[in-house]
Write a sequence for this structure.
């Protein structure tokens, strides 16, 4: 209900602001004055028919009013209609009868109505036309910007229609695939169908033979409309060098880890074969010497206790070396597999701490490649060590699940958790090494933690 006054006010505002600066507007006003003066002259000299034709000159005002509407819209026609009415009002004083007065009033009303309605209609049409022109200009400018970006982009771009035919390509695509790529089926160009391209997941790599060389692309598809056609734009980002560098880094990391494990294995064997055996021999000799001297002479009680203490110290050192050797390379891992090695790891961790550690195995255990088993063992070993050293949990649950084509490992503790909002010494926690090992195994390490509620570390790797 409140919109009508606002609209009327707007119409009157436009009607009362005519284009005074335009010479053509003043020519129209002169025509109005001329018609009005002519009407008065004809009335005064009785050249018109007194009763039948006296109202006709009023409609002659439609000529300048219509002209103003066509030229200026409501800004011109509204003012012209009002001006015509003002000039014509004196004629009402010389009317001949009430019927003639009513006819002139109706005629003036029609002139004003035409001025406002027709002027507003013309103005609306002009605004619509101007808006359409502006939209068309913006579309042309947008298309020009698109073509500029399309041509300047260094990544190859193919535009494919619904029939999987390449209908356009940018210069970068011509440089890679040649000018003959146009009108080719996209499957012949990229080796996969349009539907497969549209279903590419984020991070998925498309490998295409370019000049008999495998080239890796990251693929992004978007729908674009060209007039009445819906097209698919395929953007190909060359990541060959990036993936080559990543493979080099991965190979280097794998080489470092293998060298580290080889060194650990060598040290473990040397500790087991030399120092440990030597300490065991020393322990046996001490025991033998004590027994022989006890038979031959009666030893002082203090000396006997000291010799027994030395023997105990030697055995303690031997046990420490044995544990160190097994920590570097558990014999059960190479001989029996991952599950027995993890059971030994859990038992040692529970024995050397106040934390209860449980191992649960789901599925049918099977042997993996030794480097895979060793990698999983190291991840679990580091996770348990981190939890005991930093989280102070009361319980740790380790779950190993063997699937048909996947193996999952999960370590959950009820410790203090990790506050990811604070700066964390990644190298101290060993998370970086765990992630690198997981990546080399073809999996991804996931860490979920909440302060005061514990931490869950999970990993899945393919076994085929």
């Amino acid at each position: 209900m409140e919109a009508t006054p606002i609209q009327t006010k707007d119409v009157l505002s436009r009607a009362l602001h005519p284009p005074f600066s335009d010479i053509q507007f003043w020519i129209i006003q002169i025509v109005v004055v001329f018609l009005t003066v002519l009407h008065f002259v004809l009335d005064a000299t009785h050249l018109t028919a007194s009763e039948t034709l006296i109202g006709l000159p009023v409609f002659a005002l439609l000529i300048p009013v219509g002209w103003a509407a066509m030229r200026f819209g409501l800004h011109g026609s509204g003012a012209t209609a009002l001006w015509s009415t003002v000039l014509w009002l004196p004629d009402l004083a010389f009317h001949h009868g009430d019927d003639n007065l009513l006819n002139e009033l109706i005629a003036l009303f029609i002139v004003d109505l035409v001025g406002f309605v027709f002027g507003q209609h013309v103005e609306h049409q002009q605004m619509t036309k101007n808006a359409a022109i502006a939209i068309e200009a913006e579309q042309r400018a947008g298309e020009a910007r698109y073509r500029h970006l399309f041509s300047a982009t260094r990544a190859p771009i193919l535009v494919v229609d619904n029939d999987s035919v390449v209908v356009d390509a940018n210069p970068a695509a011509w440089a890679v695939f040649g000018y003959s790529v146009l009108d080719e089926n996209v499957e012949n160009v990229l080796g996969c169908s349009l539907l497969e391209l549209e279903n590419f997941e984020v991070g998925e790599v498309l490998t295409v033979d370019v000049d008999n060389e495998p080239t890796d692309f990251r693929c992004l598809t978007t729908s674009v409309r060209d007039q009445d056609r819906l097209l698919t734009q395929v953007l190909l980002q060359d990541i060959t060098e990036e993936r080559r560098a990543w493979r080099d880094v991965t190979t280097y990391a794998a080489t470092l880890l293998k060298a580290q494990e080889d060194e650990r294995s060598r040290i473990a064997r040397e500790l087991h074969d030399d120092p440990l055996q030597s300490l065991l021999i020393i322990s046996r000799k001490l025991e033998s010497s004590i027994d022989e001297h006890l038979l031959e002479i009666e030893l002082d009680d203090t000396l006997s206790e000291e010799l027994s203490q030395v023997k105990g110290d030697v055995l303690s050192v031997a046990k420490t070396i044995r544990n160190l050797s097994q920590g570097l390379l558990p014999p059960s891992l190479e001989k029996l597999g991952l599950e027995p090695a993890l059971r030994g790891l859990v038992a040692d961790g529970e024995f050397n701490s106040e934390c209860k550690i449980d191992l649960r195995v789901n599925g049918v255990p099977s042997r993996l490649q030794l480097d895979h088993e060793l990698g999983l063992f190291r991840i679990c070993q580091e996770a348990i060590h981190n939890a005991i050293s930093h989280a102070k949990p009361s319980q740790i649950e380790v779950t190993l699940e063997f699937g048909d084509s996947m193996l999952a490992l999960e370590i959950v503790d009820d410790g203090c958790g990790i506050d990811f909002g604070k700066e964390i010494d990644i190298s101290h926690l060993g998370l970086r090494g765990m992630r690198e090992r997981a990546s080399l195994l073809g999996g991804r390490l996931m860490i979920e933690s909440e302060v005061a509620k514990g931490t869950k570390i999970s990993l899945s790797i393919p076994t085929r």
